[in-house]
Design goal:
The chain is of the alpha/beta class and about 450 residues long. The protein has twelve helices and eleven strands. β2 and β3 form a beta hairpin.
Length: about 450
């Protein structure tokens, strides 16, 4: 196979800079030296000008791509990357009528990630989703407390992280610098020691799956809310009870986070939507937005309205105007207890540097809303009179769970029973049991 430079590598970026320099200098050096008929001279000079412009456009594209983490590879960029092996009809709950506890364990080997800019030691695995038929990389960040002897028998809370579309699964680490920002807050006790999980979400090349199960095309919902969660439970010390799981995303990932949490309150207890939207048609390449029936079924507001009972989920909607804030207001207007919707108004537009600034706030919010403020026995997260983090804007009062218990098993995995607890004494749920809770490194 011929060598192809990495799209996001420094070598390719340096090559584009050199190409710009060369294509700009060539006309200066050769313009008056071109020989031949007038038509030939004109064509050659035009080619030099166009080449210089094309090189400049390529360099700018690479700068923007590297800055925003849009495409990880050439196959993603060219829309030739499909990570779907099959897409069976898995039914309304996305499990195909089966139970989580009966699904085969997903023991994985992990490699340490040494890429620069990942915010400390990271782990990565390639997961083949046994239920969804999707496969792709999954990044896992473990807080320092995970390896501490004092916490060897504790189960850790998890936040699943979703990027925008197009977007790299690493963006929460490389662009938003999440581990770097929350580590000091974890040490001070203001933020619980969350395990961060970032699965691949670009699964169909240039098409956005809308975080839905679409029989015959993709089971993106089951990939994220079942396969990835099961894998984490089978390899790390976590519970699958909803009280131990949250999901957060920005842009289309914010839409996905709100959608998955409200559709599956048996899997997530909290969600954060940064500049997200309710109507999937807001993303022009969305498969769910293009089909009227899928659009209705996957509209976040409609999911909330049509729920048989109000989902026990806390949602934080962050944004500016129609870019996240107004969609959140619409959800808050429809929410009935135990559904809770908090709002946070921001300024600065739709960009990673704006979302990066929100990371400390949203993890403090998750710590409070999930009842984890006393998880590590350190300083309590700061509250305002309305129950939010210290720098929260005014808003409706939101009850916060105060349980401080933790899962008691020394292993990870799945089992069924009312005694299984999530971190923070959250409501029981279905958990898989029996794994030793250690990652398998080469």
């Amino acid at each position: 196979m011929p060598y192809v430079m990495n799209l996001t590598g420094n070598t390719f970026f340096a090559t584009t800079i050199a190409l710009v320099v060369i294509t700009v200098l060539l006309p200066l050096l050769l313009w008056s030296r071109v020989r031949g008929p007038a038509l030939v001279r004109g064509a050659f000079r035009l080619l030099m000008v166009v080449s210089a412009q094309a090189a400049a456009v390529l360099m700018v594209f690479v700068m923007v791509n590297n800055s925003n983490g849009l495409y990880d590879s050439w196959s993603d960029l060219l829309g030739m990357s499909s990570h779907v092996e099959r897409a069976a009809d898995l039914g309304p709950d996305g499990t195909g009528g089966g139970r989580v506890s009966s699904m085969p364990p997903l023991r994985q080997d992990f490699e340490k990630v040494t890429d620069s800019g990942t915010g400390g030691e990271m782990l990565r695995t390639h997961l083949k989703g046994g239920l969804s038929g999707v496969e792709g990389e999954v990044y896992v960040w473990l807080p320092p407390q995970y390896g501490h002897p004092a916490h060897r028998n504790r189960k850790f809370p998890v936040v699943e992280l979703l990027p925008g579309f197009p977007g790299s699964s690493k963006n929460w680490f490389t662009k938003l610098k999440t581990p770097d920002q929350i580590e000091p807050l974890i040490e001070s006790g203001r933020v619980a020691p969350f395990i961060l999980v970032a699965p691949r979400t670009m699964l169909l090349g240039a098409e956005d799956h809308g975080y839905a199960n679409i029989p015959g095309r993709i089971n993106a919902d089951s990939w994220l809310s079942v396969d990835v969660r099961n894998m984490v439970a089978d390899n790390f010390r976590v519970s699958l009870a909803p009280g131990g799981w949250a999901i957060a995303g920005y842009s289309s990932g914010g839409h996905g986070a709100a959608k998955l949490a409200l559709a599956h309150p048996d899997r997530y207890s909290a969600a954060v939507s940064l500049s997200g939207y309710n109507d999937p048609a807001a993303e022009k390449s969305s498969l769910t937005g293009a089909d009227p029936e899928l659009r209705r079924e996957n509209d976040v507001l409609n999911i909330l309205r049509s729920a048989a009972v109000p989902p026990r989920v806390s949602l934080l909607a962050v944004g500016q105007g129609a870019d996240g804030y107004l969609p959140g207001l619409a959800l808050r207007a429809e929410a009935e207890p135990p559904t809770r919707v908090d709002m946070r108004a921001i300024k600065g537009g739709h960009s990673t540097w704006v979302w990066k600034a929100q990371v400390p706030y949203l993890f403090e919010w998750l710590t409070l809303r999930m009842g984890l403020e006393d998880w590590g026995g350190g300083s309590r997260a700061r509250r305002t009179p309305d129950g939010g983090p210290a720098d929260a804007p005014g808003g409706p009062s939101v009850d916060v769970g105060s349980g401080s218990g933790s899962g008691s098993g020394s292993g990870s995995g799945r089992a069924t029973g009312s005694t299984a607890e999530a971190p923070g004494g959250a409501a029981p749920g279905e958990v898989r049991g029996g794994a030793p809770g250690e990652v398998h490194l080469p």
